[in-house]
Amino acid sequence: MALAALSTTFSFLKAMMNMKELVATGQAGDGREKALLDHVVKTAEKGNPMSVLNVMDDYAKNSSWLMNIGDGKGPILDNTLKKYNPRVLLELGTFCGYSAVRIASQLHRDGGKLLSFEMNADNCNIARQIIEHAGLSSEVVVVEGKFNERLELAKQFLEEMNSPHFDFVFIDHWKDRYMPDYLLLKENGMLGNGSGVCADNMGPIMAPADFRKYLKTHPEELETSEFKSSAEYLWWFPDSVTVSTFKLPSQL
To answer: pLDDT tens across 29-57, in order?
Structure first.
């Protein structure tokens, strides 16, 4: 156990040392993302989302650290989805598809679907294959590109889903985009009264200061709870997840 934790920490630090490429490309630069896909396809039971998640968690703990929400904070996301019971969902930051699989496996309303944005083409390809292996391709649409640059596609998705807004939004991409992308959602009417907004990596070290401050100073707009935990696969690294309920001004 101690050796595994040490190995995970070393793998995390290796990724952080390559931060410039990680930020620019969304990948660690050592092939771990492709290796994860190969491992999932070879090891996880096809059509079984929980098996896929367990294999991804095992890989992140024992082979190469990954920036998934992980099995530590994952139950927070699970419980949040039960609370909101959403049908039309948005994810900002697909990476390799871990949270997309986790979210899609929790959809209990007929016709529920997740739209997920990922800036890196290779990650999109990996995520789509992992989501397919989990048997959830019909519940998840992975889009290559940045949300702010493909806003019309999000609007088109809402039209196709016959919904005026997203019931639930999971934010887990680059931290400098949390605040501007939330404002884009709000200004374009993509959030409705009661919509859930869940944000990962909101702890004392990684949280974007502007978005964290906004949550604290706008309780009339976003009724927020914070759930403290540790960062993905790193027990020594404090982190948290925030869960907010959006309120329309006319219904405050």
So the answer is: 899 999 999 999 999 999 999 999 999 99
